[in-house]
Amino acid sequence: MKLEDFDYYLPGELIAQYPSQRREESRLIVFRRNREIISETIFSNLVNYIQPGDLLVINNTRVIPARLLGRKSTGGEVEVFLVRRTGERTWTALVKPSRRVREGIVIEVGEGEGSVRITGEIGRGKWEVKLEGELPEYEFLDRYGHVPLPPYIKRQDEDIDTQRYQTVYASEKGSVAAPTAGLHFSGELLRSIRAKGCVVLPLTLHIGPGTFRPLENDSVEDNRLSDEEFMIEADYWEIIRVARRERRRVIAVGTTTTRVLESLAHGKVEERRKEVIGDTEYIRGLTRLFIYPGFDFRVVDALVTNLHLPRSSLFLLVSAFAGRENMLRVYQWAVKRKIRFYSYGDAMFII
User: Fold this and answer.
1) DSSP 101-123
2) Where does 67-146 sit in CATH, by number?
3) What residue segments make up the domains of the chain, in order of their start?
4) At 324, which helix (H) or strand (E)?
């Protein structure tokens, strides 16, 4: 398959720069795969499509304020974008401009309360760094870090982003991008969904910057994704497996949730291991599962998702789930109706 087959026209003014006034007031496209029917409602009406016995699986990762803006001792400005925590106060990070830093350089951040030391080069603009200073690690980030808005949001982060570029159920710190399908859920809507007899189960996948990185190869099959870390309670995975055997629907909220569930079902998990935290046993591992048309979905029956970049791994995933021609038709329909796209945009429910 060619990557150009997953391109579509999108006017720039449809790329949402701010969230809707209220989470659940986003517009919701409903696409029924079996009938190829497209309709529109508002997101709060998602509850009307929930059935007793359904499982709704969410990603409870929490976005960290991963962008640190600082200066070298020479006065040069440097941006440190934290990618993954590798140990106590140590991180893998993207540093810009990369050509102006080297191992051992200290970048002062904030008002003298902390700094970032470059401790080693990984390559391709990526470095090992250490957060230094007396402030606790995450207090330092909360005070001086910036919300890592995606590159297609053409503004600096604002106070609104601290709350709205985060799901209401975010609890596990570690992402540098939001699981955007979950941004539309309010606490009230989740309570209504549970009241319908739907079980809501969390898992955690920490999203890296690769979610915004363009696919590099013209041939779809030649592309690879970066690995991302996930964890899920072992009992929850068993509940999902039982639901599949009982032919109850598993509804994934977002492409990240989908990739975790399908990675487990297909045995495509690297460094899989069990870990006990408190009294709870978890399955942990890494996934780099790349889902594109032709993929055999073994867990996910329905998908809540946003509208994604052309030629992106996310658009290929929804094309695999609902059909490429179907998705191109739905996206063309969305453009005509001026649906808002991408992270702060509107949503879609694929049944």
Assistant:
1) --TT-EEEETTTTEEEEEEEEEE
2) 2.40.10.240
3) 3-63+161-350, 67-146
4) helix 324-336
| Vertex 287: Cα angle to 283 and 293 (nearest 5) | 125
| Alpha-carbon gap, residue 197 to 79, rounded angstroms | 47
Q: Look at the domain 3-63+161-350 and name its fold.
A: QueA-like (3.40.1780)
Dihedral through CA 135, CA 138, CA 141, CA 146, nearest 10?
Answer: -160
* pLDDT per residue rounded down to tens, the chain (351 residues): 999 999 999 999 999 999 999 999 999 999 999 889 999 999 999 999 999 999 999 999 999 999 999 999 888 899 999 999 999 999 999 999 988 889 999 999 987 788 999 999 998 889 999 999 999 999 999 999 999 999 999 999 999 999 999 999 999 999 999 999 999 999 999 999 999 999 999 999 999 888 778 899 999 999 999 899 999 999 999 999 999 999 999 999 999 999 999 999 999 999 999 999 999 999 999 999 999 999 999 999 999 999 999 999 999 999 999 999 999 999 999 999 999 999 999 999 999
Beta strand 114-123 pairing with 27-32: unpaired
Long-range contacts, stretch 152-159, CB < 8 angstroms, 24+ apart? 152/15, 152/309, 152/342, 152/343, 153/15, 153/17, 153/342, 153/343, 153/344, 154/17, 155/17, 157/67
Residue 66, H or E segment: none
Cβ atoms 292, 319 nearer than 8 A: yes
Pairing of β 347-350 and β 27-32:
parallel
Class of residue 280 by CB neighbours under 10 A (exposed 0-12, middle 13-18, buried 19+):
exposed
Q: First and final CA of the chain: distance in angstroms?
A: 25
Neighbours of 134 (CB within 10 A): 8
Same fold for the pair 3-63+161-350 and 67-146: no
Among candidates 101, 95, 70, which has minimal Cα distance to 82?
95
